[in-house]
């Protein structure tokens, strides 16, 4: 027996299907929509994460500057580790914020976080290069050698040549000129070390080293000229001057090698220029994100169906 459905039956079935679809969509909507309380909670969480990121970024910057300005390897390494730890904390918070923004945040906030992430990647690159330089302290080590062993050897050479001049005051003028010329060149050579250590430009360091090489040739030529005289070959002061000058040149070579690395000068320049600009760009991006979160409209609570039914209907 076949069951025949009339037009009314079909309409009622269609209406029932529509009602079921509407109910399904309503259930889905209320299951996925965040409650106002949850929205407020997430907004506060986002704001707190951004604030902690700004704080950690500032802490990393301060520790980096301390690493650059520290005068010992131990202090530089300790501050560099602090800077790296604070930078890693910024990255951890950034990842956490990204996950939170994926839950109910506006597109503008996601775009601002993406902008920060790009700037922070550049910040991290500069930071790694800068801290790798800062912990070497080559300029500080060069200064320690220049004002320590190098100065001692140069002063010994000059003092020994002074004794030589006093002892041979009646010697031929050529002997006196050679000894006095060597003494002046040694002291002049020593004074060129500190400016070389402080110099940032390689071409200028090349010029300084050319002048040092000229002074060195003058000292060597004078000492060799004196030692070539038969009456001075056994002179103890001349031998002592040659020995102390050899020590000076050994230390000078170490100083120039350290100075050429220029790690303190380069790291300080990076800190005051590239790193400072990168840090400000990151802070600006976080501040913009902070303002966007703060400017979000407060979520409205959905109407209470029971209250609506309880309110009297106005008739006209």
Topology:
Elements: H1 7-32, H2 36-69, H3 73-101, H4 107-134, H5 138-167, H6 173-191, H7 193-198, H8 202-227, H9 236-261, H10 263-294, H11 305-310
Helix pairs in contact: 2-3, 2-4, 2-10, 3-4, 4-10, 5-6, 5-9, 6-8, 8-9
In short:
By secondary structure, this protein is mainly alpha-helical. It contains 11 helices and no strands. The radius of gyration is 39 Å and the shape is rod-shaped.
Structure in words:
- The longest helix has 34 residues.
- By secondary structure, the protein is an all-alpha fold.
- The protein has eleven helices and no strands.
- It has two domains: 128 residues, Four Helix Bundle (Hemerythrin (Met), subunit A) (Up-down Bundle); 124 residues, Up-down Bundle (de novo design (two linked rop proteins)).
- The protein is rod-shaped and about 105 Å long.
- α3 packs antiparallel against α4, α4 runs antiparallel to α10 and α8 runs antiparallel to α9.
- Helix content is 83%, strand content 0%.
- About 4% of the residues have low confidence.
Range of helix content:
over 70%
Please compute the radius of gyration using only Cα atoms.
39 Å
Order of helices and strands: HHHHHHHHHHH
Beginning-to-end CA distance, first to last residue: 55 Å
| Poorly predicted tracts of residues | 21-32
Kindly state the number of beta strands.
Answer: 0
Characteristic key phrases:
316 residues, mainly alpha, de novo design (two linked rop proteins), 11 helices
């Amino acid at each position: 027996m076949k069951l025949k459905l009339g037009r009314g039956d079909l309409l009622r079935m269609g209406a029932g299907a529509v009602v079921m679809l509407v109910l399904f969509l309503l259930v889905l909507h209320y299951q996925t929509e965040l409650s106002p309380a949850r929205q407020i909670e997430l907004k506060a969480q986002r704001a707190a994460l951004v604030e902690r990121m700004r704080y950690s970024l500032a802490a990393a910057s301060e520790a980096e500057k301390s690493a650059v300005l520290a005068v010992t390897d131990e202090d530089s390494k300790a501050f560099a580790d602090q800077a790296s730890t604070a930078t890693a904390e910024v990255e951890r918070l950034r990842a956490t914020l990204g996950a939170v923004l994926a839950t109910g945040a506006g597109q503008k906030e996601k775009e601002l976080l993406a902008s920060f992430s790009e700037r922070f990647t550049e910040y991290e690159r500069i930071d790694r290069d800068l801290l790798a330089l800062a912990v070497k302290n080559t300029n500080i080590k060069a200064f320690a050698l220049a004002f320590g062993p190098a100065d001692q050897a140069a002063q010994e050479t000059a003092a020994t040549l002074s004794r030589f001049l006093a002892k041979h005051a009646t010697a031929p003028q050529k002997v006196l000129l050679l000894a006095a010329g060597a003494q002046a060149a040694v002291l002049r050579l020593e004074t060129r070390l500190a400016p070389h250590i402080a110099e940032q430009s390689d071409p200028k360091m090349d010029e300084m080293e050319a002048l040092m090489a000229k002074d060195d040739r003058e000292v060597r030529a004078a000492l060799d000229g004196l030692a070539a005289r038969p009456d001075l070959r056994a002179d103890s002061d001349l031998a002592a001057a040659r020995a102390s000058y050899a020590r000076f040149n050994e230390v000078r070579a170490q100083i120039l090698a350290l100075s050429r690395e220029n790690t303190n000068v380069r790291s300080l320049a990076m800190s005051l220029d590239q790193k400072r600009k990168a840090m400000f760009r990151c802070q600006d991006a976080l501040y913009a994100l902070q303002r966007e979160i703060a400017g979000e409209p407060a979520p409205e609570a959905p109407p209470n169906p029971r209250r609506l039914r309880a309110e009297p209907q106005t008739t006209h």
